[in-house]
Design brief:
The chain is of the alpha+beta class and 293 residues long. The protein is built from seven helices and 16 strands. A six-stranded mixed sheet has the order 7-8-9-3-10-11, sandwiched between helices. The protein is globular, with a radius of gyration of 21 Å.
Length: 293
Amino acid sequence: MISLNIQKRLHAAGGQMQLQAALEVRQGELVTLYGASGSGKTSILRMLAGLMKPDGGYIRVGDQWWYAADPPVWKSPQQRKVGFVFQDYALFPHMSVQQNLAFALEKGQDRAIVAELLDIMELEALRHKRPGALSGGQKQRVALARALAARPRILLLDEPLSALDYAMRQKLQDYILHVHRKFALTTILVSHDPGEVIKLSDRIYELSEGQMMSVATPEAFFEPGRIRADFTLVGPIETIAREGGRYVLRVRVGDNSIKLTADQPEIAHWTPGDRVELVSAAGGASLRRLGEP
């Protein structure tokens, strides 16, 4: 559905950076852009939404050209069916939850979608409250609902959960998966959190200093030793096998099955269905069964 090959000179922390990005996203996919801060991820979202113009290349969505350098084509943000959710919520502080959603409707659009989204996002009881009276997780649910109000074809998520605590992140990730499927969206997520990336993604594009480095499935992306960032994964065990002196576990994280290896003797007493937590930090990684001290 989305075919993109764009170039853009950007101002990065270390000076000028040349962004060269090419990706293909199939209709209905949830794809993540992963990489260090300043690698060009947010700029790609902004160019796809029409908030920034590339220097060259093209953006094609379905059978429509949204941007082309030669011959020149440019669709304004209003002409693109895109929903954008930002890290800082970007809600109107003087409007209630319901008014924030209604403001996003297109002229003549059926207002029934507002009530539907309030129900789906469990915001009905908060409909008359203003953003200042909401928690971070509630604000992000409102921002997600508002992005869906105009029935976009594409949903863009720019690190929408990075300011939330772990428990709230997990809950909001479930909301994202739910609305992605319910509204048959094509979704592009920017995230620094490997656990979140693995849980949500069909495929992962990795960027470094403006260049596309690789594209992989979540399992390939999570190969042992590949990811060095701190993260936490939680999920039920699907299978356990003994290979030599080590245990090989398949753990379900969101819609993905991740392979883990460990040599802890207590794993001999674990069974499929047990929920486990993998924590990776600078000091190493630890795996434990939830419910144990």
